[in-house]
Amino acid sequence: MVLVKGGTFVPLYGGDSTAVKVQSFLLDVYPVTNQQYLDFLQKNPAWRKSAVKKIFADQNYLRGWETDLSYGPNPEKISNSPVVSVSWFAAKAYCECQGKRLATVEEWEYAAMASETKANAANDEKFYQRSIEWYSQPNPTYLPPVQQSFKNYYGLYGMIGLVWEWTQDFNSALLIGESRANASLDRQLFCGSGSSGAKDTKNYVAFMRYAFRSSLKANYTVSNLGFRCAQSLQP
């Protein structure tokens, strides 16, 4: 894990104040790999493909895996690739077994703003453009090893350009309506008109992440959605 030194940043959607404060925290250098997840499954059989309850993971859970304890026909190619097709429940259980947790949306977005040389690359057009180019690409047949992905200012690999990642409060991206009308609001929808409340309208990649998160449910599994773990600093 590496230390992500706390500070303030402007999230895509904020409250009354423009900037939010993020406390210093620890974050895994890499997303969790297939081999690491296999090690978890060997010790926690309840999370294997044949045993997991559907309330905790949909039918596509670990879809590319051949068996409960085999993650594919070419294990040497993907052992260090990020594990994908795991649900929020599974990711949360994995991190808790390591004595960790999932990062919050604010922590993840704060750490993901870093380029190779800047902790905050909010005004770096090249950084945004590279992010957009990755989001527009189709998934490769084999995801690359996590060590070969983009390394940012904090020493974190793959925050951009590898896989989407679960966050602890992923559903906080859902937009809420005016209080008197909340009862009739469909909370599964990410309303396009909500962009009027965005603090940084040029940050298109953040729009994409928030829209993606808002489409998820905790038991969903997606072929390019992985995770990494975080940890709060002890007082």
Automatic annotation (TrEMBL):
Residues 1-230 form the Sulfatase-modifying factor enzyme-like domain. The lineage of its organism: Bacteria, Pseudomonadati, Bacteroidota, Cytophagia, Cytophagales. GO terms for molecular function: formylglycine-generating oxidase activity. It holds the Pfam family FGE-sulfatase. This is Formylglycine-generating enzyme family protein. InterPro entries: CTDL_fold, Sulfatase_Mod_Factor_Kinase, SUMF_dom, SUMF_sf.
